[in-house]
Write a structure and sequence with these properties.
The protein is an alpha/beta fold. It has 2 domains: 119 residues, Response regulator (Rossmann fold); 80 residues, no CATH class. It has 9 helices and 5 strands; from the N terminus they run βαβαβαββαααααα. Strands 2-1-3-4-5 form a 5-stranded parallel β-sheet, with helices on one face.
Length: 223
């Protein structure tokens, strides 16, 4: 097992579910763990924490299992959940549901949305970066769209900086920076918003660095 290998946890009694997941992820070299007892999920997640949990909803109370997962400590409680089979209406608390038997494209597309590019194991390595945190929260497409808009707002702020501090929407930038996980930049723009003259130049310089970080993070690996 490589140091950066991503993990997925399958909660299922049916071995066919394991066969599907193994086949679907074979080319991406994931660490696949399985349990038939949801009570032991917290004990076997280990390190690295799983990027996703797959539940076979054809047996047992899937909603109760999801509720139990959400009561676990951080970061397990926020783990994206993929449901296989069961009631088509059962999606509350989960990242999505697939009919059984699932197709490879449907499974990998759904997992990619909540775990990021499947071949980019470094993305999921602890400590998590801002992009992966957003992916787990919003999904891949929404996370990258949010980061793209944030990068564009920072570029516009840099362009507008020639007009002085009042030409830049510091309060808005502080809020978006915080939401995207850039705490230091958020604090700097909050200082600008409070009228602290010495923070403006530093906020602009840090914004340039953050733009570079966003561009680098969105240059993804395979899958």
């Amino acid at each position: 097992m490589t140091e950066t290998r991503s993990a997925i946890l399958l909660v299922a009694r049916d071995e066919t579910c394991l066969a599907y997941v193994k086949a679907f992820l074979k080319s991406f070299d994931w660490d696949i763990r399985q349990t038939s007892d949801p009570d032991v999920i917290a004990g076997i997640t280990g390190a690295p924490a799983p990027a996703a949990i797959v539940l076979d909803a054809r047996e047992g109370d899937c909603a109760a299992v999801i509720a139990r997962i959400r009561q676990f400590p951080v970061p397990i409680n926020g783990t994206p959940i993929v449901i296989l089979g069961g009631d088509p209406a059962l999606r509350v608390g989960a990242g999505g549901r697939l009919d059984m038997p699932p197709t490879q494209d449907a499974f990998t597309d759904l997992l990619r949305q909540w775990a990021g590019p499947l071949g980019d194991h470094t993305l999921r390595r602890a400590p998590w970066n801002f992009r992966y945190r957003l992916i787990r929260l919003l999904g891949l497409d929404a996370a990258d769209s949010t980061l793209g808009r944030f990068g564009a707002a920072l570029r516009q702020a840099i362009d507008d900086a020639a007009g002085g501090r009042d030409a830049v929407p510091a309060h808005r930038l502080a809020g978006i920076a915080g939401m995207c996980g850039f705490t230091d930049l958020s604090r700097l723009w909050a200082r600008v918003d409070r009228g602290e003259d010495d923070a403006f130049a530093l906020a602009i310089a840090t914004s340039r660095s953050v733009i570079a970080e966003i561009e680098k993070a969105q240059s993804t690996g395979p899958g």
